[in-house]
Design brief:
single chain; 365 residues; alpha/beta; TIM Barrel; two-stranded antiparallel sheet; 43% helix; globular
Amino acid sequence: MQKILVVAFLLFSLVNNLLANEGYTKQEIERMISKMVILGFNGESVNQNDEIYKNIKAGLGGVILFDKDPNDKKKVKNVRSKEQLKKLTSSLQTISKQKLLISIDQEGGIVQRLKSEDGFVNTPKAIDVASKGEDFAKQTYKLLAKDLSESGINADFAPVVDLAINKQNKVIVTRGRSFGESSKEVIKYSSIFVDELKKQHVISVLKHFPGHGSSLADSHLGFVDITNTWNEKELEPYKYFIKNNKVDMIMTAHVYNKNLDEEYPATLSYEINTKLLRDKLGFNGVLVSDDLQMYAISKHYDLKQTLTLAINSGVSMLLYANQLAKPITLKQIVDTAYSLVLSEEISLEQIVKANERIDKMMSKY
């Protein structure tokens, strides 16, 4: 009994000291963690009994929308029509006290959640857009951006700025998701994409840092090692956008390169996310993880490890799409991260910085 009391006292003291030193209450820290999370959910509409409603009330930073349920392609997940989607996004924004990030994957080609059969514009894949010139690209991405804006979506996980280096790359290159092999071509057409999104007040997200175009494997399915295929020129699009102050958000890749970090894949790497991207390249915006339920991460790291490494590495927003695995809840993420803050395994300073970056970005839109 005495041992239990001693442990309880020590834990109480730890909590008190932490909060006293940093000046944040438990509730404030939990809301800051919540703001760092982007969640996928099931539902074409939302009401007060839905978990996503309660999550947004608790301070959830963002949602990601999908058209179909991956476990049953005949079932609608979030998007049935333009009119329905507009009602859904409006409802989601109304729930939130802060500006809610409402995101989607709308690149064009094989990756577009808003389909022409549901009343949205059809967008060609990136390689086809690049083959038809700048005027075609401007018109194409103007229509895409307008669709997003009219539907109440304020963030697009696009454009892909990966270079088409490896012709056998099955996740980017053979699917036509890259604008080309040269950084000049990629910069030209991704800039047009970003500019058209910005005109419609939609946040663009460059992906997949530090480059996925040279990979041989798909990080959805498992571990991806780019040590022997990656080339430093894959950083050139990021250098351009950062130098010209044209990027607010970048997405990490679940790729491993022992020349950049001997131990961790990019999403979990301080060497890559802070030392390379932030310190060397000068990026001070929001860094969002790729889906943390993808097998390249979830098969190798548990929730505690993932949250600790990702947040400490400099990731600002944690994406859990709830597409590939058993759905994870906001409570699980927040409770786990909060316990790791108390044990000082997660830096509270990184959480505060992440919130500052998110607030700064959202204030622009």
